[in-house]
Amino acid sequence: MSEKPYTVLFICTGNSARSIMAEGLLNTLGAGRFRAYSAGSHPTGVVNPLALERLRKEGIDTTGLRSKSWEEFARPGAPELDFAITVCDRAEGEACPVWPGQPITAHWGVADPAAAIGSEGEQRLAFARAFALLERRIALFANLNPASLERIALERETRRIGLEGAGPRG
């Protein structure tokens, strides 16, 4: 009998790039052990085409990815969350809704590739860099065994992963 996958909500203000890429990555790298979602405090309602391009280039299915409000995950019938991870600095400081399941929270700040200015090539490079950082962190996270760790240790490890590759985020 297989265990229920751990549910993870990646949060960003606009839910158009970083959180979308994180959702796709974890659903791929988590191999059924994790079920990832993404949402925004002020969703744009549109997924950035360069985020979708990057995911497809990496072989990640983009079917069903959409920009949505975090309120969807606070409503009755929403998935019970095990983890809520912010991936942008603005979302980290915002007052979040009350999530079902009392999830472990962490902040994994990543520079916003959608804010990159310059040529199309420079913008694509910003998405590639954000993707690479998310991929490194999500690979570490996907290798955790939540069932074998006490909640405090799991919270500490999840937060520590957010420091992986940390540097100036621009």
What features would you describe in this structure?
The structure is a single chain. The protein has a four-stranded parallel beta sheet with strand order 2-1-3-4. It has one domain (6-161): Response regulator (Rossmann fold, 3-Layer(aba) Sandwich). The longest helix has 23 residues, at 120-142. The radius of gyration is 15 Å and the shape is globular. 35% of the residues lie in helices and 13% in strands. With 170 residues, it is an alpha/beta fold. Helix 2 (49-57) crosses helix 4 (120-142).
Q: Give me the oligomer status.
A: single chain
Helix/strand/pairing category: alpha/beta
**Quick one: biggest sheet?**
4 strands, parallel
State the order of secondary-structure elements, H for helix, E for strand.
EHEHEHEHH
Query: How many H/I helices?
Result: 5
